[in-house]
């Protein structure tokens, strides 16, 4: 009869797998006990009461235990290399499919109002996603191309929104006049931010830009005679279609074109408006990358000292990056103000800067397509977990950790150079490895 006992050579991997799984389960228990296992609720007397969710906690810890066992048995105890986890043909297939991702996304964006005309929720969500795509592309100039870590980008977003609101409400100017003015004012504040940080790099630059964003927010909060303080600015004029308002009266958009009035007309117009603004931002960024200023940004991102040794004026290079990035942030802010009809300092907190920066980093710094994909995943994907509000940030944290481990340069890590010397040659993927600094 065959021996029913497990051979010693097979017991060792099983023992190692269970040891790692027990440690992972204990770590998960310590992390999830206060986040998932305990919950505070307001009782009938107004005091906080603690309730337990032990079955859910046990389910999560068990899932971690089972996942750790499978991971050790399949990939071993060492680091999981991408070549072992994915088939060899998959990266090549993804690269070929990526060439068509941009046109496919553009065609889908153009058809969104046609496909979801009756779904107001999806139209509003699409407008929100495109707003963050535009913000991501604007910040991508500063962070992705110039390599300047900016944690106060929401300040330019706020300057654009308040500039449009004040000009439209006090002077009665139309949206099409206020839009370029808001961008110019935001670019001016971008230059003001650029001057104090010309000699700063790395963490020091991040701290100063973070402080600048908080200064702008506090000014908007306390200058009540101009900005309305915490009450904000309301009754902001809506944009019109070449002077035709979206209203139910004579001379409106619907009456002029013989259409039945519908509030969705204005939503569709706002969708195509932000889509046009985002496409202009994308086109301008791509064109700027091929100009001398764009090549100077990329050179400064790689090595500022070497950039200076080549005779590049880093002062003007940094100022142009801050100014142009801030200008697109101002455009997005003016659109936000006219879409909402009301703005307040609560809409321009540090969390907005962190979200836009996360979109740029996770999408791939310098990658236009990656930023759009990250904005779609982070803004649109969050809506899938709206019913599980308590777990949204937990899933978001797991996603960020996974991307930073597997794709440290972002979702779309490959970036083509702006200029080719001589003949364009392909480099084997075996000679290229992502940095994990």
Summarize, please.
The chain has 437 residues and is an all-alpha fold. It contains 18 helices and 2 strands. 66% of the residues lie in helices and 2% in strands.
Please characterize this protein's 3D structure:
This protein is mainly α. The chain folds into two domains: 8-78, no CATH class; 126-386, ABC transporter involved in vitamin B12 uptake, BtuC (Orthogonal Bundle), CATH 1.10.3470. It is built from 18 helices and two strands. Strands 1-2 form a two-stranded antiparallel sheet. β1 (38-42) and β2 form a beta hairpin. It is globular and about 75 Å long. Mean pLDDT is 80; it is low at 6-10.
Element layout with pairings:
Layout: H1 8-37, E1 38-42, E2 48-52, H2 54-75, H3 82-85, H4 89-98, H5 101-115, H6 120-145, H7 154-170, H8 175-194, H9 203-222, H10 224-227, H11 253-256, H12 264-290, H13 292-302, H14 304-309, H15 314-340, H16 350-363, H17 368-384, H18 392-406
Antiparallel strand pairs: 1-2
